[in-house]
Each structure stands twice: as structure tokens, then as C-alpha cells.
Specification:
Layout: H1 3-44, H2 49-70, H3 79-88
Helix pairs in contact: 1-2
């Protein structure tokens, strides 16, 4: 792929990153990361919606558990984190 052919994907990835950073305070880590990964994988040309959703779900779940539960970090809490914390406590 020549640099000129890759330009739309680069712009798409930049837009996904900007959207993730802008929306994570409201969506929280899990939902924001899931959406960003789905969008990024589609921009990169990954085929198969089951695969895209499965990978995004697994990575978002692992990151959420790592940062929220294991490391007890103070990341923005979205609807998913609020729901899970209500179940745990």
C-alpha cells in the first residue's frame, strides 16, 4: 500500500482517537474503548463483524477489569462501570 492509499485510513484512525478522547469522560473506559476499537478495526479493514465485536469486547473487558478492579485507578466511570460497581459492592 502506497502512502497515498493509506491516507484515508490514517485520517480515520485520527478521527477515532479524537472521538475516543472526547467521549471517554461520559462513556467511561469500557464503553468508550469498545466503541473506539470497533471503529478502529473497521477503519483498518478487518472483516467479519463477529470478529470485530468479539475482539473489541474482550479487550474492553480486560482493560476495564485491569484498570478498574485490579489497579483501582481513578478513570472516568461510565454506565458500564457504574453498573458493575453496583453489582460488586
Amino acid at each position: 500500500m502506497s502512502p497515498r492509499e493509506a491516507t484515508p485510513k490514517r485520517i480515520g484512525m485520527l478521527l477515532v482517537t479524537v472521538a475516543f478522547v472526547a467521549l471517554v469522560p461520559w462513556l467511561g473506559l469500557a464503553l468508550g474503548l469498545f466503541g473506539a476499537l470497533v471503529a478502529a478495526l473497521l477503519v483498518m479493514g478487518v472483516r467479519g463483524m463477529k470478529r470485530v465485536v468479539g475482539v473489541a469486547f474482550c479487550v474492553a473487558l480486560a482493560a476495564s477489569l485491569l484498570f478498574t478492579v485490579a489497579l483501582e485507578s481513578n478513570l472516568p466511570k461510565g454506565p458500564v462501570e457504574k453498573f458493575v460497581s453496583g453489582l460488586i459492592r
